[in-house]
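Morning!

As promised:
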Amino acid sequence: MSDSPKKRLATTSLAGCFGCHMSLLDIDERILALIEQVEFDRSPINDIKKITRRCDVGLIEGGCCNEENVHTLQEFRRKCDVLVAVGQCAIMGGLPVMRNAIMHSDDPLKECLYEAYIDSPYIQNDNHQIPNDPALPLILDRVYSCSEVVKIDYQIPGCPPSGDMLWQTLTSLIEGRPENLPLELIKYD
Amino acid sequence: MTTETTITFTIDGQTIEGRAGQSIMDAADQAGIYIPRLCDVEGLHPQGSCRVCTVKANGRSTASCTQPIEEGLEVENETRELRNYRRDLVRMLFHEGNHLCPICEASGNCELQAMAYRLGITQASKFPYLQPVRPLDASHPDIALDTNRCIRCGRCIRASKDIDGKHVFGYVGRGIEKQVGVNGSKLSKTNVSIEDYAISPDVCPVGCIIRKGEGFKTPIGARKYDQSIIGTDKKQPGN
């Protein structure tokens, strides 16, 4: 085992809740077997902020709701051989996609920001201002699923996908086999 | 009693016997062979609109819920071609409405979702998400209608018309604009009741017709299609 080079795995969370990463920890003690076979590159798990070199597998949690998400996703596509969309948010936008209900309006972004920061009766934003600090990534006109932005090789559905499902897929991909989920594991909730 | 003519035909090479006038699906159900379906449900007239039950009968594509059986008919059901075809149909239904399984109270009991599980839909889709704007009607004290999830199978329409005799639901609009409407300005202005068969959990295959206060009585993970793949609980109809 030690003489064969380890596969490199990068993961990131875009417009997600980190639930899918939490679910990755649900593989429990199998994580020991996993780190025998892979080395984590950029990931919230080890807090590496940039991909250091080419990776075999990239896991994407969450869709794209701002420009920083798009840049990260494009970087992952460039530097990962196999890109996997993990969870409903990455696959179809998930909960953030609910804001797309207003994208058919003439000025969707304005409507969205006004609802969030100005008009809603529930806001706790005393100065009623839309945040516009230059450090904040610009919000997109709507939420995009990962496959609308780059080519996605595999999808693992679920909210979040179970640890078993992630394990099943990861072990297949690490061994160079295509994802092959048993039907019993496929869940969208 | 009427004289019954027995008709012999095959599904995927397996010989099946049925009665004259039976549809391919009824005869298959009786023989314990499952043909995937969404708009057809036991007890309602078949409508043949979702096309998920499409089979090849003597090489021609047809909806098995409406096509009568014939002597010597050769039916293809579980072939790669038909599975791909059904997969595309189910995907299009997902893309046409707003089907957010993580926030839907029908998740796990939903036939659309269960059909996607059965067909193994996990790959990135070639279709765009339309993300339409559709209304939610929660005006009735016992019932809500979230048309974001409607797949226009017409099961509620047929149940309300044929079983309840009330005509609460009906189609409005055409083509992609086709929707299910109610016979009033909103649900609370109609003669619908929580006792209606059209409102029973068996009728709406998705989470469009909501019985208020019941959504999470059974937790996620312990629901019908969390336990078994749709169509694997082969029922032998007694009638």
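Chain A is about 35% helix and 20% strand.

Hope this helps with the figure draft.
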